[in-house]
Amino acid sequence: MQRSAMRELAFQLVYGLEMQKEESQEQVDIFVENNKITDEKVIEYLRDIQKGLTQNSKEINTLIENNLKENWSLNRVSKINLSLIKIAIYEMLHKELPYKVAINEVVELAKKYSDESAPVFINGILASVVKDKNLDKKEN
Question: Is the pLDDT at 72 greater than 90, yes or no?
């Protein structure tokens, strides 16, 4: 399975966890079973995303809040967009995925799953995170 397809499954998982407000390995197992996922590489990736987002949730949420425009809060961001932003930040900071790849992947998912303003919104927040964490300097 291509990494893009794996990331789309990860988005579906994270979005479901956001909606249920429950983040556990058991939820990952249920997701894997319900979607009939048998590829161990995919299952490992999904577990890593869930675990990483849970362990780093405070850092990731703070980064998002700090890079939202004035008068915005996490509660105002749609669960779809929030899920995509969290995945990108986690992968950029903790999986050392090149920031351009991470941003491009979630922007493409936003085009598919969110409203027409989402790609620009997500791109803006993630570009701010890149500058905030000096990721653009590390990749050059």
Answer: no
